[in-house]
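mind reviewing both lines:
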Amino acid sequence: MTDQEPAFWTDSHCHLAMEEFDADRGAVLERAEESRVRRMLAVGTTPEDWPGCAALADGKRLWATAGLHPHEASRWSPAVAKALGEALNGRWVVAVGEIGLDYHYDFSPRAVQRAAFEAQVAQAVQRSLPVVVHSREAFEDTVAVLRGAGAALAGVIHCFTYGPREAEILLGLGLHLSFSGIATFPSAPEIRKAAALTPSDRMLVETDAPYLAPVPHRGKRCEPAHVADVGRHLAAHLGVDASELARLTSDNAARLFGWGPLDGER
């Protein structure tokens, strides 16, 4: 990146409403600003944290999502569906997520996960909102649900952990792919190969904070400032200027989630 650091980064997926940030959330946001991370998406995973995400959102620097994580899918009910619909009415709530399938932990039965995922995807299509999708060891079923929603569905596979073949299929559905700190791990060459074939207008970067701190922060709590490390690592791997990757991924997030350019940055 150039000495002037002319571009800014966007953390397209972080969990700022979690209790891990309760003691120093203000300082976390200050460190993000110091690292030129100017925009963040506070992602909701349960009915309990949807209000917290919405309260953080200001439509300038922070936006929010609401969705029922696959770990929580057993809680899906008409009442939760109604509550989600109400949460999605929030002024700065811009996506349905984090939703999807997780067959690694199976904290909820797989059939229940699929039903909750399908129902939430339907809400997203009905509201013309993008989806933020969690998919772990559940590729085929994830594709089946997303393909079933049709061409009207937009969204992102967050924290992409598959390989090039899976990336091509998901990109073929018109989805974005978001790369987290895992892309900096020495053990993740397939993820970096997937990043290399992702079109520049379909790539996002994220932290998934407080999880998955990138190199060189392994073993520490992850926070939005670290998305700059994720981006710089990817830029070096891709052979592009980090400032250009910051601009591209920030523009992609703005387009996908419907917010405009940052004042003074264009």
Q: What stands out?
A: The CA atoms of residues 169 and 246 lie 25 Å apart.
